[in-house]
Structure formats: structure tokens, C-alpha cells
Amino acid sequence: MPRARAPIAPIMKRRLLSVFAAGLLSAAGFEPLNLWPVALAALAVMIHALAQAETRKAALLTGYVFGLGHFIAGNSWIAGAFRYQEEMPVWLGWIAVVALAFYIAIYPALATGLAWKLSGERRKGAGFVLLLAAAWIITEWLRARVFTGYAWNPLAVIAVEAAPATRWVGSYGLSGLILLVAGGLWLAAHRQWKRALPLILVPLALTGAGYAAQINADMKRLNVSERKGYTSGILARIVQPNIAQQDKYRPDYERENFLKLATLSGNAGPQPRLLLWPEAAVPDFIGEPDEEAARARRRIATLLGPDDIVLTGADTLFSESKQVGPVIEKRWIGAANSVFALDAKGAILGRYDKAHLVPYGEYLPMRPFLSLIGLSRLVPGDLDFWPGPGPRTLDLGKDRHGRSRPRVGLQICYEIIFSGEVVDPDQRPDFIFNPSNDAWFGSWGPPQHLAQARLRAIEEGLPVIRSTPTGISAIIDADGRVLKRLPYRQPGYLESMVPAAMAPTLFSRFGNFLSLGLAFFLGLAGIALNRRLR
Known about the structure:
The protein has 534 residues and is an alpha/beta fold. Helices cover 43% and strands 15% of the residues. The chain is built from 16 helices and 12 strands. It has a 6-stranded mixed sheet. Strand 4 and strand 5 form a beta hairpin. Helix 1 packs parallel to helix 3. The protein is globular.
């Protein structure tokens, strides 16, 4: 006879309810609210509940329920994408948000379960907090990798304004430092001041050291303009046409949309320009070897001066040919989300294909089954997108006068959120271009996306330039500072010299080995401290 499951005690139910509420509140630390003190307090509530857990199941449930609240609130912007898909009801968007939360809440559950297990009976002190911080780093890193990964909003994003330490420990390492601070607040609330102070002061000291290194790097810039965060030689014009998602693929809007891009691109001047257009800015298949594609490229080229370059998003089609009797039939079998570099003659100087694709957005997993029950991709079209080979640097060659053009790293939209996976290590670019289409995601998704792009700039020591149809387009320097931005839903352009790159950072050399190394160190320290106090 099967054993009956033990019911959850009323006190445990109340505890889980408070943890779920804390999870919801913790998302207030992200943009656009940016209420990081609330997030820290919410994490402290979760740590307090975990310390009271009497069984491994209770510990796992604590992390899982916190994660449910955290990810439902933090990913609520996803529901807005379903407003633009006629074949699926809007309410399905909230089902998608909750279903996603039910999956990714596994990772904070793993963190709390691991910390609880390794702590043994010592769950009231600093060693316990150290172990939780170590486990959180590892599970955030796993969340970014397992099943193609979903790296959106690591805890580090709540501290993007104080994130120079990510050059040494990465974003996931910074998330662990945030757990240390929250644990210090929890200990301070229990008047364990001697144990609390080191947990709070060490992350603050690392942040201060990061700022000191940042100031030192600024002072070493070669001239006054570079000390302000700019370099000479690359004039960029970033275009934000404010084309709404519902108008993006309508044939009757194609001419009007191109006119917006053309008008905001301005006129060529004496200085070579780099025009930067958003993801999927043009609906034409400009990479095809036919006259229609050549005509589309020439139309774009009319906007360019003799040494200008445009980087624009457009789709690439893949086909296969098959001999059927005397006739060769051609059929389309896939597509790529691409960025093309075009010169003033309409020639293609290079192409980058997006590697990190969005499941259910750009391709439909288990297509035969899900198509039968009426589900489809959020991006219009019957062809699934295929992934590109990964981070690449486009070398745009030389202009007519023999001057070298910039080397551009490409990360399309969602790709920029993956820490340690945004730059080709063998060909370091001068800056990263992140064309995106955030028109799907309401007013909350775009500022969160921008914050994560800032973290990549700090980690890699490279400027990041974003161009989106509806915002937020921005110029971010190598210190993660937003130098210029265009607000959400406002048409316009940004014109500026591209900020200077820094020397390669420690993170750019070693990547997430640094984050995992920090987790290993914190874990050993936590175990050692618990054994000493036992």
C-alpha cells in the first residue's frame, strides 16, 4: 500500500506564503523600479526562512517558492508579446510566464537545498550564508546554460550602478556578493554584529576597489575627449524609428517604415559614418543572390556617403534544391536572424547570424506536436530560425583612403544577456553592437535589457551600442555608463563618437571560471567556518 504524503504543517504554509511574497518583492530591485533595498530585504526574508527549515524538503521548497514569486514578477513583461500573435490568445502570455517560472524556480531551489545540506546543523551563522552565496553563483551559471539557457536578470542586475567588481568576478559572482550582503542584513537583524559586518563590508570593499580601478583607467586615457569616455575616428549614428510591432511586418507599412529609417539616418557629411539600424530593420531578404535583393541593397546604399557603412538587421533564408524529373525545384528550409554590413555601393561586407535563439519566439521546439495543438512561434513565419556559430567580430576593412574601419562585435537582442559568451576571444572588437527588437515587451522589458547590456560592457571592458525600433537605444561606455539614450516609444537618433575600449579585463580573459572560482572559495570558507564553530 503506497505511503500517504505528509501534509505541510500550517506553520510551514505560512512560512512559504511569506517567502513567496518576498520573491515577488525581490523583483522590485530590477529596472524600471530599481528598488534594490527592497530586494535585499526580500532576500534576507528568504534566508531567514531557509535557516528555519527542518528538513531537506522544506529547504528545497523555500528556494522554489521564492523563485516562483521572483520569476513571475521579474518576467511579467513576457506576457505582452502575446498581444502581437493573432493565432494565440493574450491570456496565454500569462500562462507562459507562470510556466517558465515553474521551471526556472528549480535553480534557486537547488541553491537553497545545497546550502542547507552542506551546512549540517550550523544554519545560524556566517558559514551558512557563505555556502548559500556559493550555491547561488553555481545555480545562476547553470540556469544560463541548461536547455539552451535562460540568463535573464541575474541578481547582479539590481547592483548595476555599483558593478565594477564584475570585471573580476563576473555577473554571477556579483550575485553571490549580493547574497552575502543580504545574509549580513539577516545576521544584523538578529544582532550578530561580528558575523554580519564582514559579510557586508567585503562586497563593499570590492565595489570600492572596482571604482578606484575605474577612475585609474579613466585617468590613463590619452586625451581629454577620451577621459570623458569618447574616442576619435568612429562616428556612429544610431537610429530608433519607433516602428510598433503590429506595424513591422504589414506590407502596406513597408514604404512608411523605410522612410522613417531613411529620414532619421540623415545626410552624409565629410566624416565617415557608421549607421546602426535595429534588429530586423528591413523586411527584404537582402542577402539573396537575385535582382530583387540587389535592388533593396541599392535603395539602402543611396543613404550612405562614399565611406559610410550601415549595419542593419534582416533575415537570411536557407534553401535546398531537388531534381524532380527535368526540373530543379527549390524550397526554403530555414532562416537566420542576421545583421548585414553594407557599403555605399550596396556590397555586403559581412554578415552575422544570431546564435542564441529564443525558444517559442524564433523556433518552435517539438514543432510536429505543438503545431498539432495550435501553437506557433511568436515571430511571424512558417520557417524556424537556425542558430549561427556564436560570437563573431566583423572586420569592415579599410575605407577609400586606406584607413582601417572599426572591428564590430555583434550580439543580436537576447544574446547580450549571456555573461562570458558575447565576444570572440580570438578577435576582440572595438565595440559591441546590440541591435534588438524590444517592441514586444512593453515598458518593463526594455530597461531590464539595457541594464544587462551595461553589465556586459563592464565585464568585457568594451562599449556597447544598442539600436532598437521602439527603445531603449543607447550608447554605453566601457565602464557601463549610459552616455546617451533614446527613451522608450520616442523616434529619434543618437550621433556620437564611439566610446573607447579599455584594455582586456580579467573577466574577458578568464570568463566565468572567475565566477565559479569565487563560488568554490566561498564554499570552502563556509565549510571551514562551520567546522571551526562546531
